[in-house]
Structures are given as structure tokens and as C-alpha cells.
């Protein structure tokens, strides 16, 4: 029997102001997108902003549904829109901010497993890393240099 250890690396910024200017602006787009989330069931609003290599910024937010599983997370709303409108563009980075109407979120909120899987597909498709920055409403910002670092042992087309 052999043990395998998997390590990953995240970088933590103290707050929004500690981010490089262009990243801060992208995160502010995620804040704006969060305001338009439709989340009457969870009261948990998420905004995502993507920078494409053609300079476009695409945003998305979570869209819930009375039939709960029919809703969609912010990250996938944004990434699928980007994929549908700019199929040839590469995604450089994604900024995510999550906030609850029930209590203030002060720690970085990572993308859910389904969103990680969806983002991983695009990272493989474009053969280039996607940087992921995520935070709550306030507080520290976490950065991953690639989606792959957030999804060890990912499932991808190589096994099909
Ligand atoms: N949500 C996102 O938008 N992104 C995530 O990565 C995690 C969860 C949304 C889905 C749902 O509308 C609400 O947050 C509560 O789960």
C-alpha cells in the first residue's frame, strides 16, 4: 500500500485594497454583479467577473429557482456566457465575491465543486491557467494560480 499526499497552494491578501489595481477592479465588478443575484431562497448572493484575453470582462451571478436544482451558480452563469459569446477567447482570471443576507461573510468563499468542474473544462480547453480570486463581502482574498489547484484528482476528457 502506498500513500499519496496531495498539496495545493493558495495566496492570501489581507483585503481588497491589498490586491493589485487591475485585480481590485475585477473584484469590484464581481461585487456589482453580486447585487443582481436572484437568490430569494438562500439569501446567498454570489457575483463572478471574468477577464478574457481580448480585454472583455464578463460577469454573472447566481440565479435560483423554486425548483432548487434548476438554479445556477454565479461562476457557471459567467463562464458559460463567456464560452457562448467568445468561444475563441481565453479566460485569464476570475474574481468571485459571495455575501449572505443573513450574516456578513468575512472569509473567502471558494467556488463549489460543480463550478470547479465547469471551470476546469475551460482551463483544459484553452490550455492555459485560469487564476481564481475569491472572497466574501469583506476580509481576506484568496488566490489560486489555476483552477487545477482547487480540484485535485479532477475528472477530465483524458479518461473518456
Ligand atoms: N452559489 C454560487 O453561486 N456559487 C458557488 O460556488 C456556491 C454557491 C450559489 C448557489 C445558490 O444560489 C446559493 O449560492 C446558495 O448555495
From TrEMBL:
<dbReference type="Pfam" id="PF00383">
    <property type="entry name" value="dCMP_cyt_deam_1"/>
</dbReference>
<comment type="function">
    <text>This enzyme scavenges exogenous and endogenous cytidine and 2'-deoxycytidine for UMP synthesis.</text>
</comment>
<dbReference type="InterPro" id="IPR016193">
    <property type="entry name" value="Cytidine_deaminase-like"/>
</dbReference>
<keyword id="KW-0378">Hydrolase</keyword>
<dbReference type="GO" id="GO:0042802">
    <property type="term" value="F:identical protein binding"/>
</dbReference>
<dbReference type="InterPro" id="IPR006262">
    <property type="entry name" value="Cyt_deam_tetra"/>
</dbReference>
<dbReference type="GO" id="GO:0072527">
    <property type="term" value="P:pyrimidine-containing compound metabolic process"/>
</dbReference>
<keyword id="KW-0862">Zinc</keyword>
<keyword id="KW-0479">Metal-binding</keyword>
<feature type="active site" description="Proton donor">
    <location>
        <position position="75"/>
    </location>
</feature>
<dbReference type="GO" id="GO:0055086">
    <property type="term" value="P:nucleobase-containing small molecule metabolic process"/>
</dbReference>
<feature type="binding site">
    <location>
        <position position="112"/>
    </location>
    <ligand>
        <name>Zn(2+)</name>
    </ligand>
</feature>
<protein>
    <recommendedName>
        <fullName>Cytidine deaminase</fullName>
        <ecNumber>3.5.4.5</ecNumber>
    </recommendedName>
</protein>
<dbReference type="GO" id="GO:0008270">
    <property type="term" value="F:zinc ion binding"/>
</dbReference>
<dbReference type="InterPro" id="IPR050202">
    <property type="entry name" value="Cyt/Deoxycyt_deaminase"/>
</dbReference>
<dbReference type="InterPro" id="IPR016192">
    <property type="entry name" value="APOBEC/CMP_deaminase_Zn-bd"/>
</dbReference>
<feature type="binding site">
    <location>
        <position position="115"/>
    </location>
    <ligand>
        <name>Zn(2+)</name>
    </ligand>
</feature>
<comment type="similarity">
    <text>Belongs to the cytidine and deoxycytidylate deaminase family.</text>
</comment>
<dbReference type="InterPro" id="IPR002125">
    <property type="entry name" value="CMP_dCMP_dom"/>
</dbReference>
<dbReference type="GO" id="GO:0004126">
    <property type="term" value="F:cytidine deaminase activity"/>
</dbReference>
<feature type="binding site">
    <location>
        <position position="73"/>
    </location>
    <ligand>
        <name>Zn(2+)</name>
    </ligand>
</feature>
<feature type="domain" description="CMP/dCMP-type deaminase">
    <location>
        <begin position="21"/>
        <end position="158"/>
    </location>
</feature>
<dbReference type="GO" id="GO:0005829">
    <property type="term" value="C:cytosol"/>
</dbReference>
<feature type="binding site">
    <location>
        <begin position="62"/>
        <end position="68"/>
    </location>
    <ligand>
        <name>substrate</name>
    </ligand>
</feature>
Amino acid at each position: 500500500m502506498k500513500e499519496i499526499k496531495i498539496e495545493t497552494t493558495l495566496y492570501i491578501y489581507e483585503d481588497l485594497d491589498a490586491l493589485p489595481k487591475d485585480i481590485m477592479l475585477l473584484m469590484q465588478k464581481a461585487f456589482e454583479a453580486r447585487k443582481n443575484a436572484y437568490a430569494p431562497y438562500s439569501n446567498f448572493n454570489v457575483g463572478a467577473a471574468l477577464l478574457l484575453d481580448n480585454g472583455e470582462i464578463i460577469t454573472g451571478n447566481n440565479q435560483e429557482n423554486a425548483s432548487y436544482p434548476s438554479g445556477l451558480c454565479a461562476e457557471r452563469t459567467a463562464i458559460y456566457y463567456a464560452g457562448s459569446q467568445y468561444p475563441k477567447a481565453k479566460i485569464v482570471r476570475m474574481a468571485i465575491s459571495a455575501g449572505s443576507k443573513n450574516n456578513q461573510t468575512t472569509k473567502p468563499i471558494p467556488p463549489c465543486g460543480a463550478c470547479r468542474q465547469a471551470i476546469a473544462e475551460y482551463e483544459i480547453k484553452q490550455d492555459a491557467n485560469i487564476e481564481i480570486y475569491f472572497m466574501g463581502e469583506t476580509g481576506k482574498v484568496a488566490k489560486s494560480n489555476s483552477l487545477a489547484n482547487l480540484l485535485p484528482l479532477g475528472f477530465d476528457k483524458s479518461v473518456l
